[in-house]
Known about the structure:
The chain contains 8 helices and 5 strands. It is globular and about 45 Å long. The chain has helices at about 1-15, 25-30, 40-55, 65-75, 85-105, 120-125, 125-140, 165-175, and strands at about 20-25, 60-65, 110-120, 145-150, 180. The protein is an alpha/beta fold.
Amino acid sequence: TDDAGRTMATLTEALTSARCVVIKIGSALLVDRMSGALRGAWLSALTSDVARLRARGADVILVSSGSIALGRAALGLPASDLSLEQSQAAAAVGQIQLAHGYDQALSEHGLRAAQVLVTLEDSTDRRRYLNSRATLDQLRSLGTVPIVNENDTVATDEIRYGDNDRLAAQVAVTAGADMLI
């Protein structure tokens, strides 16, 4: 319909003019549900899109889930609910795999990944918020692609964002992003 065409054109124009884009990536896109492995072909396609955005001058920040899912598989933990301690252990193992996967995929396009792990306190405490913003600004000025994730290895139930959708919204505000996808 004409409305769908106009909406798509508006979105395309907004993306084309955006100077900073935050993209939230969920575990279901990044980690194969059956094997628990990183979906390399999907990650490669994503980083190709990131490279195109960077080539036209846009800063890109990725907010990525996946560390617990990757670590769960690597540690042979059950698919059922995990205890807090099991989730933290899975995150510790999976975060390394996640960062390595992004680093490899981005480097194929001449881009450098930067890992930024945060907790809810990093956005609620003014000093920590300003430090987070300064760090993201510096990483962007150095031409990196920051990969942001909640620091699940230290975050407890009481100090968690809860999901990376909320984290992505906070990162977009902190970075002054023009668009959140």
